[in-house]
Every structure is written in structure tokens, then in C-alpha cells.
């Protein structure tokens, strides 16, 4: 049985053209509470908006879902430490051939360079530590801001 | 996520995962199998034919469950992974940790 949300689930999605931006056709913004129970619904809503109006293969949909789920989990659990007073901010720029997704938490950030790019092939049985590894393999490009509390993922539509 | 159980004719507990196996619900699966272990079940097949996606926390939960079942002298195997789900197991080398079959029937024949 899933525990009830400690406060109402509030997913605010705004879809607006971005004036002055040549590349971005539309921008979707969402605020996600720092509750892991919100992630699945947030991923469903974001995926629907990211892939609406354009042909996307099932593989792209799958990769987007896994990357979003892990990025939100990192932001909520490791970044905001599930602090109910903090939120996660998602901004998606919808480009003709790709989506750029920024996921930003209100934590202190982390040194992403310290996270190994590859899993230890001798230790596939560790119960954790696969999140960033999976993200790097699901999307086409990954960047972090200097503080380390914001990840930008680029996924091509085809 | 929805979980449903069925017992095979050769005594294997089949647990079907419907929907997503992710950070928000992975404990449901862990608690479900823990309950079955406490009832004396030792041989498990988790079938993912109705599963959408699995995140890293879901994969971690499966690793922890496999360890728990092994510690109890049991066996946990997997089936029904589509091409995308199987790619997650291959990327993370978990295909070397689990016995994975295409269908439940094929998996049951290996117990």
C-alpha cells in the first residue's frame, strides 16, 4: 500500500512559446514536490508533453521515462533530501528534433565528476549507484551546472 | 504498479509486475516478496511482460530481493523483459546476475 501524500500533489505545467528564442518552439515548466510518490505521475505528464505532436519511437519514449524518473529521484532524494519545504523545477525546451530537459533541485549540489562514468564490472550486485549511469546511457547528452544541483539532458526524438 | 500472484504446477510463485517499477513503489514489491518468504515460499519468478519501465531504484530493489531470496536458500528468476527492459539489464550487467527467460513457461522449465 502506497503511503498517502503528505501534502497535495501539485503539478503545474505551463506550455508557452518562448519569445526571442530561435531554437525553442515551446517550453514546458513543472514544479514537483519533494516526494518520491509524485515521480511516476510527473514522468507521465512530462512524457506526454515532451512527445506530443511529433513522431517518437517507443524506444525514445522508454529512454525519456527512465531518464526523467532517475533525474527526479536524484533531485528529490539526494538533492532536496525529501525536504517537504523544497521543490524540484523541471524545464523542457521542445525543439524540432530533440528535447532539452533541465531538472533543478534546491540542494547544495554535488560533484558530478566524482561519480564514475562506468559501473564497476566486478560489482553488478550493488543495490544502488546506477542512477547517473543509466541517465548517461538513456539520453544523447548530459550537462550539469557549476553548483551541481541542475542536470540538463538532451534526447533526440529519433 | 500492480502485483498479482499465481502458483505454477511445479510450485514456483509467479509474481507479475504491471505498470512501472520505480523509486516510489519499489518497496511494495520488496514487502510483497518478503511476505511470501515468510509464508514459506522459496522459488520465485518475477514476470515483466506487463511492465512499462524500470528505473535504477527498481533495478536496485531486484538486486536486494535476489540477495534476500538467496540468503533464505531460495531462487529468483525473471521473464517477460521486452527489448528495452532487457537493454537496462545488459547495460548494468544485471543480466549476469539473474537467470532471464523470454516467457514464464520457458523460465518455469528451468527451475
Describe this structure in words.
The complex is a heterodimer of chains A (158) and B (111). Chain A is α+β, with helices and mostly antiparallel strands. Chain A has a single domain, classed as Histidine kinase-like ATPase, C-terminal domain (Heat Shock Protein 90, 2-Layer Sandwich), CATH 3.30.565. Helices cover 27% and strands 24% of the residues of chain A. Chain A has helices at residues 39-50, 58-79, 131-138, and strands at 14-17, 26-33, 87-94, 98-104, 141-144, 150-156. Chain A has a six-stranded antiparallel sheet, with helices on one face. In chain A, strand 1 (14-17) and strand 2 (26-33) form a beta hairpin. In chain A, helix 1 packs across helix 2 and helix 2 (58-79) runs antiparallel to helix 3. The longest helix of chain A is centred in the middle third of the chain and has 22 residues, at 58-79. The model of chain A has no long low-confidence stretch (mean pLDDT 84). With 111 residues, chain B is of the alpha/beta class. Chain B has one domain: Transcription Regulator spoIIAA. Helices cover 39% and strands 28% of the residues of chain B. Chain B has helices at 26-38, 56-71, 83-91, 104-108, and strands at 2-7, 13-21, 43-47, 51-54, 75-79, 100-101. Chain B is globular and about 30 Å long. Chain B starts with a strand and ends with a helix. Classes of the chains: A alpha+beta (158), B alpha/beta (111). Chains A and B meet through helix 1, helix 2 and helix 3 of A and strand 4, helix 2 and helix 3 of B.
Amino acid at each position: 500500500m502506497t503511503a498517502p501524500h503528505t501534502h497535495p500533489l501539485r503539478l503545474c505545467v505551463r506550455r508557452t512559446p518562448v519569445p526571442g528564442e530561435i531554437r525553442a518552439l515551446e517550453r514546458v515548466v513543472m514544479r514537483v514536490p519533494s516526494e518520491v510518490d509524485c515521480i511516476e505521475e510527473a514522468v507521465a505528464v512530462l512524457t506526454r508533453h515532451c512527445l506530443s505532436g511529433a513522431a517518437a519511437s517507443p524506444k525514445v519514449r522508454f529512454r525519456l521515462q527512465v531518464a526523467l524518473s532517475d533525474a527526479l529521484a536524484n533531485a528529490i532524494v539526494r538533492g532536496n533530501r525529501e525536504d517537504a519545504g523544497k521543490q524540484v523545477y523541471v524545464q523542457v525546451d521542445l525543439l524540432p528534433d530533440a528535447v532539452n530537459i533541465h531538472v533543478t533541485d534546491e540542494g547544495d549540489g554535488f560533484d558530478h565528476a566524482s561519480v564514475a562514468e562506468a559501473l564497476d564490472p566486478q560489482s553488478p550486485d550493488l543495490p544502488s549507484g546506477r542512477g547517473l549511469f543509466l541517465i548517461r546511457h538513456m539520453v544523447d547528452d548530459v550537462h550539469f551546472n557549476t553548483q551541481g544541483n541542475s542536470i540538463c539532458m538532451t534526447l533526440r526524438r529519433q | 504498479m500492480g502485483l498479482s500472484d499465481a502458483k505454477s504446477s511445479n510450485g514456483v510463485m509467479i509474481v507479475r509486475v504491471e505498470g512501472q517499477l520505480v523509486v516510489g513503489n519499489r518497496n511494495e514489491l520488496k514487502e510483497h516478496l518478503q511476505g511470501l518468504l515468510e509464508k514459506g515460499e522459496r522459488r520465485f519468478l518475477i514476470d515483466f511482460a506487463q511492465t512499462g519501465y524500470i528505473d535504477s531504484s527498481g533495478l536496485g530493489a531486484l538486486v536486494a530481493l535476489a540477495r534476500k531470496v538467496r540468503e533464505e536458500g531460495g531462487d529468483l528468476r525473471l521473464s517477460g523483459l521486452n527489448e528495452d527492459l532487457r537493454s537496462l539489464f545488459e547495460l548494468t550487467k544485471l543480466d549476469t546476475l539473474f537467470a532471464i527467460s523470454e516467457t514464464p513457461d520457458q523460465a518455469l522449465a528451468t527451475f
